[in-house]
Amino acid sequence: MTQFRPKYITFDCYGTLTNFQMAEVAQTLYGERLDAQQMAQFIKNFAAYRLDEILGDWKPYNEVVHNALERACRKNGVTFKDEDGRFVYELVPSWGPHADVPAGLAKVAKEIPLVILSNAMNEQIMYNVEKLGVPFHAVYTAQQANAYKPRFKAFEFMFDMLGCNPEDILHVSSSFRYDLMSAHDLGIKNKVWVNRGHEPANPYYGYTEIKDISGLAGVVGL
């Protein structure tokens, strides 16, 4: 990507900015019942079911977590309890940023408005955002959009709220499946992939790769 100064820099939050600790929580809940290989498979299943749960009509995120965890338990022969789902959901607001995020965001926050588009509930997201350490122009949730990413409806809600077009923004995410594939299809030409090891590189989708948020300022010439 050639150097580009966008009207807005838009971000995925959980996983990209916030240290999303679903794998660690699963380990806490079920690690004593599964060996290392079984636990690794459980974590993969839990992640896959979370994605599957959000591809249809919007439902509250506590239901997404509950259903995905229950399905992962069933697949892996683990007893599921309703309180396990509540435990995971209620932990989400306590999670803070990756170590590189506050300083990395501070480099760009004074020059370009920052926006979050998150697969979040309104009641949770601001606890996480407050821990990021910089002001945001806007924070949009799946609950407000009535759709989760990767559905286009979530991105289109953000465009409508900002009064901008796909070519006006730079979208930043650590995930192709949730963000960058949809961004590509919607005509967001300027994209940044934060390589946090969640997914393999996929150059087809046309992005600038950075290892963490400290590299973002250089992408926009700051």
| Helix and strand composition category | alpha/beta
Proportion in helices: 40-55%
Mean pLDDT: 96
Report the uncertain regions. none
Cα(first) to Cα(last) distance is 15 Å
- Major pleated sheet: 6 strands, parallel
The beta-strand count equals 6
Using only C-alpha atoms, the radius of gyration works out to: 17 Å
Beta-strand percentage range: 5-15%
Secondary-structure element series = EHHHHHEHEHHEHEEH
Strand order of the largest sheet: 3-2-1-4-5-6
Estimate the global geometry from the Cα principal axes. globular
Q: What's the total helix number?
A: 10
Walk me through what this model shows.
- The model has no long low-confidence stretch (mean pLDDT about 95).
- The chain is built from ten helices and six strands.
- Strands 3-2-1-4-5-6 form a six-stranded parallel sheet, sandwiched between helices.
- Helix 1 (about 20-30) crosses helix 2 and helix 2 packs antiparallel against helix 3 (about 60-75).
- The chain is globular, with a radius of gyration of 17 Å.
- It has about 220 residues and is α/β, with parallel strands linked by helices.
- About 45% of the residues lie in helices and about 10% in strands.
Q: What can be said about this structure in brief?
A:
Helix 6 (about 120-130) links the parallel strand 2 (about 115-120) and strand 3. The two termini are about 15 Å apart.
Please describe the topology of this protein:
Layout: E1 8-11, H1 22-30, H2 36-53, H3 61-76, H4 82-91, H5 101-109, E2 114-118, H6 122-130, E3 138-141, H7 142-145, H8 152-162, E4 169-173, H9 176-185, E5 191-194, E6 208-210, H10 216-219
Parallel strand pairs: 1-2, 1-4, 2-3, 4-5, 5-6
Helix pairs in contact: 1-2, 2-3, 3-4
